[in-house]
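Here is one chain, start to finish.
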Amino acid sequence: MDFDNPPENPFAVFDSWYDEAKVSEINDPNAMSLATVGADMQPNLRTVLLKGHDERGFVFYTNLQSQKGLELAGNPRAALNFHWKSLQRQVRVLGPIEAVSDDEADEYYHSRARESQIGAWASQQSQPIADRATLERVLQEHVEKFKDVDVIPRPPHWSGRRVVPDKIEFWQDGEFRIHDRVVYARNADQWVKQRLNP
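Its structure:
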């Protein structure tokens, strides 16, 4: 990307950088840090996987009763950060959260390995558990529960969330810490772009 004359559409830039990351990153080029804020105003950060993106936004899936699920229900805004170390690039995304459709969630859920589908039923994500043996016992109970079921239904507490960007910032490492940065800010149905100091 020419940081002095960036493209009009930030999603085109993201697509190009993401395609390069798929080639250069050893593991999980779709890994992204997800920041939320709880009712106590404490920021919270974890790594999740991007499972879809288009001009509507960036999609991930989770247990809606998990800590992040509850935080997003209470404060439906989030920030994402992609860090592709091999390319010395970052992309930051900020914006509100929206639910994916049931059809989208069902399609992704059923694309997962059967074991992962069962795991979504077995795990009470973020809740305390006595030990690994207890987790494995609960998992086995669900394996038995679904052993004769060809199409496992998606749990009602498991779905996707889309970060709808208000801002997307592209960062490229520069020599002597003189980095290149461009931020795109949404203004109604247009994107306003601006170069930033390092």
